[in-house]
């Protein structure tokens, strides 16, 4: 599978944390992605606007966390015309950023087949219910990353039967074997990969709780980039200051 490949990491990023950065790095190196776009959800479809920290803060933190990594690109794709919170619309917009090209065997590899949507294993439970979930899973590559402490990803129960033949479960393989399996996939076709990136056990929920509690600063330190930690402290974003 030759040519430019691009990751699309969608999230609320409230706040972006080291778990996210670890996942992006791990998937980037495994799949040879030229760039990873961090697409910040404007108002996640499943959340009320008043439940979520304003987009401007979440985007600012993504910019800070990715500032030193040139291949990690903050994105507000959801706000671009036509604004939409749905992943299917974001992926169509992202296609413009990836040239179609030739794959290893000289076959045409359409732009969609060069996009890799990155998500945690917990998203596997929901993806079929996302708008045009079937079309999404058919048209684009997905990389579901196991979350630490979570039960193994039971993809047979979560995904529509029609896509199971395109699932590649790479969990439990060492990186060399996982890479060679990925390289053996024909260009121009999309797959649903399950991977284990040894991501640290961090969640944004935990960070918000620590920020709001007294004495949570020390534990938070390990979970955040220094610039993001400073930002949260300066703005007292989650209270507790
Ligand atoms: P919250 O605790 O508020 O639900 P979160 O930490 O899960 O937030 P999101 O912004 O919702 O962060 O995450 C974006 C994507 O990254 C999701 O698909 C999520 O499953 C995945 N993700 C987040 N943290 C990890 C982690 N530690 N390991 C693997 N995947 C993760």
Ligands, ions, cofactors: adenosine-5'-triphosphate
CATH class of the largest domain: Alpha Beta
Number of domains: 2
- In CATH, the topology of the largest domain is named Rossmann fold
Number of helices: 9
Q: Stretches where pLDDT falls below 50 for ≥5 residues?
A: none
SSE run: EHEHEHEEEHEHEHEHHH
Which strand order does the major sheet show?
3-2-1-6-7-9-8
Tally of DSSP β-strands = 9
Task: Tell the overall outline.
Answer: globular
**Can you summarize the main beta sheet?**
7 strands, parallel
Q: N-to-C terminal Cα separation, in Å?
A: 50 Å
Structural classification: alpha/beta
List the helices and strands and how they pair.
Elements: E1 6-11, H1 18-31, E2 35-40, H2 55-66, E3 72-75, H3 87-95, E4 101-102, E5 108-109, E6 115-120, H4 133-139, E7 141-145, H5 155-158, E8 167-169, H6 175-183, E9 192-195, H7 204-212, H8 217-221, H9 226-235
Parallel strand pairs: 1-2, 1-6, 2-3, 6-7, 7-9, 8-9
Antiparallel strand pairs: 4-5
The site of adenosine-5'-triphosphate (ATP) has 19 residues, from helix 1, strand 6 and helix 7.
Describe the structure.
This protein is α/β, with parallel strands linked by helices. Helix content is 33%, strand content 16%. The protein is globular, with a radius of gyration of 18 Å. The mean pLDDT is 91. The chain has two domains: 6-201, HUPs (Rossmann fold, 3-Layer(aba) Sandwich); 203-241. The chain is built from nine helices and nine strands. The protein binds adenosine-5'-triphosphate (ATP). Adenosine-5'-triphosphate binds at residues 11-14, 19-20, 23, 119-120, 122-123, 145, 147, 199-200, 202-205.
């Amino acid at each position: 599978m030759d040519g430019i490949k691009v990751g699309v990491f969608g999230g609320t990023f409230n706040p972006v944390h080291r778990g996210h950065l670890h996942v992006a790095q791990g998937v980037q190196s495994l799949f040879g992605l030229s760039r990873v776009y961090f697409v910040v959800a404007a108002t996640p479809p499943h959340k009320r606007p008043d439940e979520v920290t304003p987009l401007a803060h979440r985007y600012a933190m993504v910019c800070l966390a990715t500032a030193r990594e040139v291949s990690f690109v903050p994105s507000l794709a959801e706000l671009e015309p036509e604004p939409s919170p749905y992943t299917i619309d974001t992926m169509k917009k992202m296609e413009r950023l990836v040239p179609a090209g030739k794959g290893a065997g000289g076959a045409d590899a359409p732009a969609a087949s060069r996009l890799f949507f990155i998500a945690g294993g917990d998203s596997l439970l929901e993806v079929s219910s996302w708008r045009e979930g079937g079309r999404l899973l058919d048209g684009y590559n997905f990389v579901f990353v196991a979350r630490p402490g979570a039960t193994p990803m039971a993809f047979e129960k979560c995904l529509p039967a029609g896509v199971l033949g395109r699932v590649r479960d790479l969990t439990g393989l060492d990186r060399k074997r996982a890479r060679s399996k990925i390289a053996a996939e024909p260009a121009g076709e999309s797959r649903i990969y399950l991977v284990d990136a040894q991501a640290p056990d961090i969640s944004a929920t935990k960070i918000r709780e620590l920020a709001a509690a007294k004495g949570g600063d020390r534990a938070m330190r390990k979970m955040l980039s220094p610039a993001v930690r400073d930002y949260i402290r300066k703005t007292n974003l989650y209270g507790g200051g």
